[in-house]
Predict the 3D structure of the following.
Amino acid sequence: MAEAVAVQEELRSRVDLVGPGPSAPATVAGLDVAYAESGDLLAAAVTVLDTRTLEVVDRAVSVGRPAFAYVPGLFAFRELPALLAALDRLATRPELLVCDGHGLAHPRRFGLACHLGVVTDLPSIGVGKTPLVGVWTPPPAERGAWSPLRDGDEVVGRVLRTRSGVKPVFVSVGHRVSLDNAVAQVLALTPRHRLPETTRTADRLCRDALAAATRR
């Protein structure tokens, strides 16, 4: 565990929190991982969407064993090898990665979105369903409203309302993207639902891949 923390600390110095990142990317990838109930098998999925239509134009999966024990704050080490393997199987290199998880909004300011962004050198953002760190005031009820997510004296993300009257999501910078741009991209990817279409399509794909693997 100490080695993993040391890796996080070393890689964190390479994170670009300024960006600004692509303002109108043509392709955006969603990344998600599903786990078997036993916890000893996972399926990582990447879906690449055309941002004009939000249709899936490329996809890849990787099924295997978790690469690391479950340790809070070190979750990326469990999923990273499988996600990188899935990314390597794509025919399309996406212009932006959208992770089902966090980036800067992490106890050591180096969540999965940061780790993936630094390793791949692709712009990346994290979109979490629940917070990992920080305090916030609920944003106004209308779509597009947000409030800062603060951890101590630091703003580590934004609490963003993607649908009016629906629970917000937690957006943080991963790598090579500004927070303003990260929020803009998430809103562009949520025309109908609370979660980005990237997350929804990757979630379905990894669940299907895991179900197929467990039937074998």
User: Anything to note?
Assistant: The chain has a mean pLDDT of 92. The helical segments are 2-12, 76-88, 112-120, 179-188, 197-215.
